[in-house]
Amino acid sequence: MAQAHAVEVLLRPAVELYTVVVCALAATLCIAAPWSLALNPVLGLVSAAAFVTLGAVRLRQAWAVLRYRRSIRRLPRYVMASRDVPVSGERLFLGRGFKWDPRHTHRLLQTYRPEFRRYVEPPAPYRLARRFEHRLAFSAPPWSSLARLTRWDHPLNPVRPLPPVGGLPRLHGIEPHEVDVTLPLSERVGHTLVLGTTRVGKTRLAELLITQDIRRGDVVIAFDPKGDAELLRRMYAEAKRAGREREFYVFHLGWPDLSARYNAIGRFSRISEVATRIAGQLSAEGDSAAFREFAWRFVNIIARALVELGQRPDYALIQRHVINIDALFIEYAQHYFARVEPRAWEAIVRIEGGLNDKNIPRHMLGRDKRVVAIEQYLSQVRVYDPVLDGLRSAVRYDRTYFDKIVASLLPLLEKLTTGKIAQLLAPDYSDLNDPRPIFDWMQAIRQRAIVYVGLDALSDPEVAAAVGNSMFADLVSVAGHLYKFGLDDGLPGSSHARVPINVHADEFAELIGDEFIPLINKGGGAGLQVTAYTQTLSDIEARIRSRAKAGQVVGNFNCLIMLRVRETATARLLTDQLPKVEVASAQLMSGTTDSSDPYGTTAFTSHTQDRITVTSVPLIEPAHVVALPKGQAFALLEGGNLWKIRMPLPAPDPDEIMPEDLQALAAHMRRHYTESSEWWNAHAPPAPETPLPEAQLADPSAPVAATDRHAAQGHAHV
Fold it and tell me: Which of 20, 120, 145, 624 has the fewest CB within 10 Å, making it most exposed?
């Protein structure tokens, strides 16, 4: 019964050391002078062995207490070079940590009690050293340089500063026995959500996961809205280390001259998918729903006509014919009558010659006379062609009314076809002199490619969101095709085998739309494994503008990894899923009682007792999530098992030489999009880089053309 109510207390003096000292002295005495204990030499050796055994047991217990007290204040450094990241075909490595259980809740609550304060807070010399540094920080040289002595980050420094990660080290130090935390690859199809505020390690975790995906040989697609140069460098370095640099594509809106090209509506299983991908980005709330439906129908009419004419749909062609549907109507009519009724064109020309402003119908005013002539000819003869009928119904609208109902479609198309972005999203397939490759998702998946998508959201968030949504919509369509027909549909020896497609969406709240919901709802059956990274739950709600849809999105992520967050509502997303546990605590109870017998020999009685109470508390509180150090996280894995993990700091690991154009792109991204306060590189020397060309050094803002086309096309598709 006493064992059932035992209370673990590790924040205490290591009293076991007293026993160790006594056992050491006794063992020495038994060996050196057994006669002093009335022992012969043989019994002296036996007794010494017994004392050594007891001393070893007590020393082990004392070491556990001392190590626990040290880990509460300072965690051991955890550093790992990129080449040393473990890769498995069955499990995904997340870092080191432990499975959280009620014991750790009990230990954590003890650290907040006043009697254990001296074991948790830094010692007095440490606090004095930090105050000394703060005072010298405002002093003039050479006095300010004296602070370097106390800031020396070396084990020999007794007042060595803690790593600049903030938070409470005790959250991880309550369990000194760490293990490698891994996730079965079979669980990744349920998708993973990573939450954490800015600069707490989301990108570092993304690098860790992407590194393993690349080396495992999976398809890797990384969406990076803001443009992180270190992520791009790491992906290319890992691709080259794995011998996959020929399968590396870079799509970047900020550098269209160096980017690969991509047509989001050029590949489809059904022609109606083109209209769905474009109109799906329009608002469907309130009165906008009717305009969205008309935009879908109108785009579908244009897409069908383009396909019949042998042209591949793209955003530029769609925009051109939305603005001027007459040209497409005339072109398709010429194509149709040349194939079906060659003499019809003579009648159309005669009708056109007799038209004037007086005999043109009112609803056709402003239209090209040839359009009016074709429409009047079709009204006289019995011709049935679904594409021609659709175009005819579009041109019969009043021109002013037509412009009003397509007004919601034009801003979206303008975002996707302005400037050099049009060259990326509407590539010229016939231009053989353009070295920039053209890719699509089906090609990338069959090739087992590695695709980095930089959307330049800091420069133009509207265009970034539009392009990201287009890519997600295209990816959903490809996932549907893979689910129905498999990867090798139409190829010899085709099968329905699933290929892991790892989609890493950084800052995905900036890209999420209605297209993202079916991607995580049904993409798992096609092999899509989405890992989404964002700051707060409110970011998702604000983007979707619906709490129900935000809950629908979050509910489709089976694995949750939560780094430090500043919003308690986001922290409760984790803590509300955890049970309450019972923790035991010992309380010292003492009291006295006066004697009521004035003639007795006892004046009073006293009693002292230890009372053990059991309290029900949450497994962790939101305040614990808010106080996490950088690079540490709580993770709900494999059906709700709570793990406490920390990611390794990257050791200095020089990257392989990047192609010159990729190098220029990474340099530009580093200058404009990232901060210099990466916590994981605070103590690591910068990785050596190949010198940039003289033109780039003279004008850092100028793009650098690739001088080695083999490197640009063969080693990395840029």
Answer: 145
Tell me the Cα Rg of the chain: 35
CATH code at position 548: 3.40.50.300
Yes or no: say if 469 and 511 are a contact pair by the CB < 8 Å rule. yes
- Same-domain check for residues 222 and 336: no
Q: How far is CA 454 from CA 29, 231, 250, in A?
A: 74, 10, 8
**C-alpha span between 649 and 398 (Å, rounded):** 65
Q: Report the C-alpha gap between 504 and 454 in whole angstroms.
A: 12
Residue 154 makes CB contacts below 8 A (sequence gap 6+) with 160
- Alpha-carbon distances, residue 214 vs 87, 266, 335 (angstroms): 10, 27, 48
Average pLDDT across each block of 10 residues of the chain; the chain has 718 residues. List them in order.
64 94 95 88 93 96 94 90 91 96 94 91 90 84 80 87 89 94 94 93 92 95 86 90 92 88 89 88 76 89 94 92 91 92 88 84 83 89 88 85 80 87 88 90 93 87 85 87 79 70 90 79 86 92 85 90 94 94 83 78 80 90 94 92 93 66 70 44 41 40 38 44
**Same domain membership, residue 247 and residue 118:** yes
Distance CA 271, CA 267 (A): 9
- In whole angstroms, give the CA distance from residue 217 to residue 448: 7
Got the DSSP string for 631-661?
A: TEEEEEETTTEEEEEEPPEEPP-PPPPPPHH
For residue 45, count other CB atoms closer than 10 A to its CB.
Answer: 15
What pLDDT is recorded for position 247? 92
CA dihedral 408, 411, 412, 417 (to 10 degrees): 150
Q: Compute the distance between CA of residue 250 and CA of residue 232 in angstroms, rounded to an integer.
A: 9
Place of tokens 């080191």: 96
Q: How far apart are CA 629 and CA 626, in angstroms?
A: 9
308 burial (CB, 10 Å; 0-12 / 13-18 / 19+) is middle
Asked if 255 and 291 sit in the same domain, the reply is no
> Do 96 and 185 belong to one domain?
yes
Q: CA–CA separation, 249 vs 233, rounded Å? A: 13
Q: How would DSSP label each residue in 682-709? A: TTSPPPP-PPPPHHHHH-TTS----S-H
Is 469 a domain residue? Answer: yes
pTM of the model: 0.84
Say if CB 634 and CB 578 are below 8 A apart. Answer: no
Alpha-carbon distance of 289 to 518, in angstroms, equals 20
637 in the same domain as 536: yes
Q: What's residue 493's pLDDT?
A: 62
What whole-number distance in Å separates Cα of residue 545 and Cα of residue 538? 10
How far apart CA 403 and CA 166 sit, in angstroms, is 57
pLDDT score at 495: 61
Do residues 265 and 311 make contact, with C-beta atoms less than 8 angstroms apart? no
Angle at 389 (CA atoms; ends 385, 391), nearest 5 degrees: 125
Domain encompassing residue 375: 272-416
Total domain count, the chain: 3
Q: Is residue 172 part of a domain?
A: yes
